[in-house]
Records
---
Amino acid sequence: MLRTDLLTVIAWASVAAAIALWLADGGATDITSPASLFTAAGVVAGLAGMDLVLLMLLLAARIPFIDRTIGHDRALEFHGKLGKPSLYLLLAHGALLAIGYGMAEGLDPVSESINLWTQVPDMWLAFVSMALFIAVVVTSLVAVRRRFPYEFWYVVHLLTYAAVATSIPHQFSVGGLFAAGTWQRWYWLAICIYTGTALVYFRILEPVLASARHQLTVAGVEPVAPGVVNIVMRGRKLDQLAGTGGRFFIWRFLSPGMWWHPHPFSLSAEPVYNGPDGQGTLRVTVRNLGNGSAQLLRLRKGTKVALEGPYGLLSTAARTRNKVVMIGAGIGITPLRALLETTPFAPGEATVLLRGHTDQELYLSSEILDLCQARGVRLFHLTGQRSRTTSTWLPEDAVRSGYSLTSYVPDIADADVYVCGPAVWAVNVIADAGKAGVPEEQIHHERFDW
Amino acid sequence: MKIRGTVAAALASAGILLAGWQTGTQAGGISTVASSTTAAGTTGSTGTGSSGPGTSGSSGTAGTSGAAGPSSSSGTSGSSGSSGSSNSSAAGTYKGNTVQTRFGPVQVQITVANGKITDVTALQLTNTDGKSIQISNRAAPLLRSKVLAAQSANVQTVSGATITSDAYLTSLQAAIDAANL
């Protein structure tokens, strides 16, 4: 958990550093009038806002260090949480500076804004950038996001890059803090370039290289249960992906109308490779949820597949204890199936709890049973309706019998606990695990409700 | 360990802010050099139009009377009170004197027509480093538009560009005086 602390420190320190750049330039000593106070507050808001934007981009850049430390979905959760604060800071930046500059020049903020737009180079781009930021954040608000298809949100979200790009010129050419010859300019350039490079490398270059390396094609689509299929892909150099069972990749199936749609799916089995050059197969298990996944059920054999990854914490690398407990619900069971295959434990040291409304929803349960028998694992099937009265992860009859996590796994406090399932359900599991005395760093959770 | 992370982050941030503050206040201590005006030897007063209410106005002729210094011939036939035709300022361009600042010299030139300032050009602007060039680039168009609107040097300085603005307006006032507006 030292690494989590390190990330926290870096994040906070970067915001402090952004403000320190301005302080070191004598920013605070220039505050002599109400106008300069507004201007100063506006500058600080802009610096902090841009720093948060860069942090957001880094959180979404799929940097392995961040992914291994807090996991992909917690990174994206923080990314989402920073959205509104950074927009507020940028709005305050614009408003406070229009007021501050305006007061100093005896103009109202609107005329001052018009002056800035028309007379100061690069400022019109900054106004465009502000409009784009507003568009991106507004379409990402949960209430708005639900009204539009995912694809619409995705395309608008790509505007973030345009928003950041158009905001950069004025940062370096207006205000003087980052003027040529200042050390502040080098620092600011460095963090901008680092963020840009990380995005290009981890989100574009790496995936393109990985896709070219593995040459994946769809080998077949097999039904598992109603609305659930295994997609089997054939490729090469799969030995390089050994140990990634349970982690997820972002897949793109390169057929007309589908190629641009990214699908996050976990491997539901370890890669199998025995041919020359690491040739073999990979498998994901997919439930038909939206129109995007419906198309997947009809994937044609031979369709080329691009991949990004592996991402996520559901791997042996996260282990800290000898004992291990895996708790999965619905389609979230499938990555645990892959993890169960290879993660090390002695017979009797592992427990698997599978949750679903019916036996049919315990996907891959026969494969899991085989693995449990082979490796000496305790296995519980927890089926039935969820409780209507209390919020719990257990079926109603288990609740009525007074069962909790420790009823199934008495020694859970000394085990690594992998949790994979819908968000609300997982929150209840994690709360129960906390009550059972499992320290936070032993809980490895991945949101899994797509 | 959440607390540990937060405490460490807070301490690190406070340290960075403090370091920034230290650097900033030290730099601020040096930056008290006021902009000094050195009128001597400058190229000002190129076209000092003659002033005084009684003189025969040379309005309209570009290129002004070569007489340096105000020639006030008060004893001549006063045409004051007659129609304001004798606007004493000649059309043309007038340079202000060069004002030295710690960021470099500043000099402006005004264009006058019909007794009005029709344009302000900065001949020299603070340019010692990238930052002062940038400040100049931002301040100059704002000052120009304000001066054109106010028709005087009596406008407010541009925030964040105080030294440049002061020097600009000082040079401008010299140019206005020279133009006799």
---
Amino acid sequence: MIPELGQFSLVLATVLSVVLGVLPLWGTLNRNTVWQSLARPTALLQFGLVLLSFVCLSLAFLGNDFSVKYVAEHSNRLLPKAYQFAAVWGGHEGSLLLWVLMLTGWTAAVAMFSQSLPLAMVARVLGVLGLVSVGFMAFILFTSNPFDRLFPIPADGRDLNPLLQDPGLVIHPPMLYMGYVGMSVAFAFAIAALISGRLDAAWARWSRPWTVIAWAFLTFGIGLGSWWAYYELGWGGWWFWDPVENASLMPWLVGTALIHSLMVTEKRGSFKAWTVLLAIAAFSLSLLGTFLVRSGVLTSVHAFATDPARGVFILCFLAVVVGASLTLFAWRAPAVTLGGSMGLISRESFLLLNSVLLVVATGAVLLGTLYPLVIDALNLGKLSVGPPYFNLVFAPLMVPLLFVLVPGTVAHWREARLNDMVFELRWVGLGALLLAIVLPFMFGKWSAGTALGVFLGMWVALGSLQHVVERIRKPGRIGGSFWGMHLAHFGLAVVVLGITGVKSYEVERDVRMSLGDTVTIAPYTFRLADMVDVNGPNYKATQAHVEVLKNDRLIEVLYPEKRRYFSSAMPMTEAAIDSGLLRDLYVSLGDPIAGDIPSWSMRVYYKPFVPWLWTGVLLMVFGGVLAALDRRYRRRSVSPLQTAGEALSSAS
Amino acid sequence: MSWSPRQKRFGLIAAGVLTLSVAAAFVLNAFNSNLVFFFTPTQVLNGEAPRNKMFRIGGMVKADSLQRDGTQVSFVVTDTMHDITVHYSGLLPDLFKEGKGVVAQGLLDDKGVMTAKEVLAKHDENYMPPEAQHALDQAAQARAAQSVKP
């Protein structure tokens, strides 16, 4: 009964999304304010219905209702309750329902927090979001219904993929989806502005907090995914340039360009067409990511099922979205006025460079991700593009990006003087240079690459610190967006330093160990002290006790495991990690090796600065949240005059 | 600097085009030299695979072919028609099993033995790497074609 209720409310929500996608937009065309004012209540009701549907599916999982096919395929009676709930989005159908829940949630949020917007604008934004919902809900109902029943009813379910039975999984997909779907809000604002023909500072101002918060979620989601891969896959890697990772990185890169470009549009009225294109691109890349991950053209932990109908549906949807929005753009863009003039050296020009570099990086990632798929689809052979390509391309693009970041934050709008900037940044530059020369020696071998990484990280970090200190000395309230920007930039610097550290100084040892054997990665010695069997709720495991000694003193015992889940023949490596301020010690247990005395293959890593990656990502996320919550976005109404005045005052 | 607006605009556009073309040239160059092609064991024995350049082979891990010597392992990848021996140093992935699909990436030496840098067997017990499946399908087709001939 409960699954049917869920299905029914999902159908109702679909009907409502059609209403939301048609009537308010139609109302803006014939100036019917009654139809326009339908948008808000419809959006809220739609969210309520999808939420009900989601709750129904969750109840089916928690109640072990294996008559529902999706539940039977992704859950099990022995599965701990928390994972039974997380299993709701552990497969294709449920994760799409979560996607739609997020989408309608964002729509409802826009409906609630848009009191300062003109009614027609609200109607357009919600209408566009409604149209996007129609596409996704039709996708669920026609190709991926999570409420389909199964007969005969199995006694027990097939269990969740053991790789996904992990706290990281419980929050990684929802956060990532919040980011992906959040880009649809930026997209809806851009399309609404195109429809109205009013691409102005007000539009950029409305759009900014939504885009920044979506960006923060996306950042968090990607960070969680990386963290999960690091400790769960047992390979000690945190970024594999896997197509699935690239699928989330591309909208992030474009989203980053978008939040910076929106700033120029708001403050100076320039870059309008470019900003709109970025908004369209960010959402299209989110859809492309969904297509890649869900269609089965890629095979990975994320590709749950291969059903050609699903791939075709998303591809068509993507084509419609991209085609329609670009057509609208081509029709409306000529009407877009140019903004104020900009100097060759000015904040605008630095931000333009930021955009160009990020877009080129996105293009490079896109090429490496799609090329093998296209070649395969055309039957021209099978090939792959590995991490060396991405590393080779990505790093040189990030170097100038990080370099211009600092002058970009101190440059004046319109026209900046190079001499002033060099003078202002002289200590930052010298300090970063000095640290780049000295610091690498302290951690081991000095190399030019390490020094460059340290220089860029310190350049950004010190640049932000100096700016913050100078600002605090001046009178006046400091807005959330100022803190947010510097926190996010500082976080980026921490990530850069972390990547530099781990890439320069990581040590990996593959060893064969018997009880009592040791392996040394100075100054740490790892000793295999014991090997025991442990029983988990739905698995059995072999657990190693590895003592870590530093200067002959025991500092930690690590417990890496090799698990065998009852529901599948598939073994699982559960790595053990000891995290410190400056390093991780990482041990993963391999297979037993036949011989006279029992021994096991083991992989031991010394991973310096890995915790900095996660810390940096968190700082960036907090920065984004702070910026989005800035008070000036929540003023009741904004007159164009006021905006122009602010642009002038910040330009001076 | 006293540049006229026109000069400024020209300068900006020129700088933009220059940056973009340098970046594009660089990206394409890196792309070209980092493509990793895939070959079936049959193709490798026919001499289609490159020497001195990494490539991937795929197929099944032949039954009873896995040998361990410390952390050194060697195994045979087969597409049921032909075999290639692979040497690898390090931990094998969780799902590596004899009789299951596998993809290995590495360099081929003069004796026709691959030294693998990477061994992939991914994520799900029922999952067959597409490359491995492709190799088996090719071999099956070749066999079918042969059996028709005589």
